[in-house]
Structure formats: C-alpha cells, structure tokens
Amino acid sequence: MNRAFIAITLPREVRERLKEKQEEIKMLLEGDSVKWVEEENLHITLLFLGVVKNKEKLIEKLKKVDQSSFSVEIEEVCYFPEDKREAKMIWANVNDKEIKNLLEKIDDSLEITPHITLGRIRRWEWQKMSLEAVPDIEDYLGVSFKVESFSLIESKTRRKGPDYDIIEEFKLK
Predict the structure, then answer these.
(1) What is the DSSP secondary structure assignment for residue 122, as one 8-state letter?
(2) How far is the C-alpha of 16 from the C-alpha of 42, rounded, in Å?
(3) Chain segment 7-46, per-residue pLDDT in tens
(4) Domain boundaries, the chain
C-alpha cells in the first residue's frame, strides 16, 4: 500500500468554492511559488498515516467508530504556519468541535489540526519574493456542509501530482 490518510471528502459545490478562492489567491501571488491542489483532490485531512502495514486491521478499527453525522464550517483561508516568510502551505482552517470528536474516536493520542490544503509553497520560489511582495490572504470563508462519512484514502505519487483512491468509506449515523 502507498501512503494513506483519513479524510472527509467534500461536496462538489464546496470544492468549487475552494477552487474560486485558489484562483483569487493566484492573482495576488508572483510567479509559480505555489503548487495548487487539484479541485478533485480537495478534502479535509483528518490524519496522515504514511505507509500502512496492516490495512485490514485499520479498516476494522475505523468501522467501529461510533459518530453521528454533523455539519461543519470551513472557516478561514490562511498561511500555515501563520508567519508568511516561513509558510509551508495555504490552507483552509476547519476548527470544529464535531470534527475533533471524530478525530478523538479515530486516534485520541494525537493533537491534530483538521484542514484543507489548497496549495503547497515551493520554498525556492517563495524565498525569492520580498516579504512586502507576499500578499495577505487571510479571509473568512464561512462555507458549511453536512458530514455523513469519512474515508481511508491511498495517495499514489505521480509526475503530474498525486492520485487519490478511496480504499474504504465509513458512514456516520
């Protein structure tokens, strides 16, 4: 198995809104300093697992997660970390109590920040820009949708970018 992660897939209309936000930010940035995530690959990352040795055991564990469906709000778009010079990505923050409850049921030993990666910063290009040229992008998004499942997803690295395959989807109550 390639690298895997646990995520919430996004409805089409949410992905479209995030794509619009990507386009707005692209217009503010110089050059090719960000590798943007393709619209079809946008998702809420809950937990990055890396290489999973025992996929069947993990699937059985995830099937036992007892959680009701819930609504979630994608709050703001910003750099991560917040320091523009040190930023590694542009993401949409998802700070939601119900997502944190779901995360605790999946793995309560980790302190994780659920997020949607919109783009990964290319350090060598980013460092060429003066700090004044790095735009302020912080913006409230306020997009909500109902979460009815989460998924175990496999990431296959390709030259054109990653391909994501859903290994298994886990329905919430």
Answers:
(1) -
(2) 10
(3) 999 999 999 999 999 999 999 887 788 999 999 999 999 9
(4) 3-171
